[in-house]
Amino acid sequence: MTRFLPAARWFTLWTLLLLVSACDAREAAAPPEAQEAVFETSQPLPERLEVEGFREVVAREGNVYISGQPDRDALDWLKAEGVTTVVNLRTQEEMDDRNRVPYDEAAAVDSLGLQYVHIPLGGTDTPYNPEAVTLFAEAVDGAEGKVLLHCTVAWRASHMWVAYLVRHRGMESRFSSIGGERISSAVTYSRAAS
User: Which residues sit opposite 147 in a β-bridge?
Assistant: First the structure.
C-alpha cells in the first residue's frame, strides 16, 4: 500500500528546500550532465535498519545514520558501529524534559568520547534555516568517523538530510526527497503497525 506524508511534513520539507535553494540562487548552476553524474555516483537510498533502542526508526546512508531519539544503549551500539559524532536536532526544551528523554544525552555522548553537536530546530524560537544545514555539513565534514543525525522520530532529521544532499552534495531536490520520504514513510509505517 502506498503511504503519503501528512501535508504539514511535506510543507516543512519543501520550505526548508526552498530556503536552501534561495541561498544558492546566486551560485552558478552545474551543467545538466554534471547534475546527472552527481546522482549516478551518489550513495544509495537510506537503508532502514532493524535495531532496537531508537524511537520509531533508524536508517543508514553511507556513513550517516538518521534516526529518532536513541536511548542510552543505542548510543553504545552506535559507538561500536564507528559513530564518532552525534548531531541532535531536538530543541533544548525537549532535551531538558526527562519524560521525553530520560537521560542527559550530551553527558552520555561525552562519556563515550563522542562529539556532540546540538542544532535545535522546531518551533518559533528555532525555525528551519539555511545556517542549520551549514552547521550540519560542518559536523559531517569534521567527523572522524560515522555520524548520527537524530530528532524525535526522524522527521526533522530526514528533512535536514534532504536539505544537506541538495545544498552540499549537489543532488537535485526531486532525487534527494526520495531518500527523505523513505525515512519518513518508515516512521509512518511503524506508527500504523503499532
Answer: 64, 85
What kind and span of H or E run contains 139? Answer: helix 130-142
Using DSSP, state whether 56 is helix, strand or coil: coil
Beta 83-88 vs 115-118: how paired, if at all? Answer: parallel
Cross-strand bridge partners of residue 86: 116, 148
Strands 64-67 and 83-88 come out as unpaired
DSSP for 76-135, written as a single string: HHHHHTTEEEEEE-S-HHHHH-TTTSSS-HHHHHHHTT-EEEE---BTTTB---HHHHHH
| All three cell numbers of 37 | 553524474
- pTM for this predicted structure: 0.75
Would you put residue 56 in left (φ > 0), alpha (ψ -120 to 50) or beta? left
What pLDDT, on a 0 to 100 scale, did the predictor assign at position 60? 95
- φ/ψ of 142, rounded to 5, equals -90, -5
d(CA 160, CA 180): 9
pLDDT, averaged per 10 consecutive residues of the chain (194 residues), comes to: 48 52 46 46 73 95 96 98 98 96 98 98 92 98 98 94 88 61 52 45
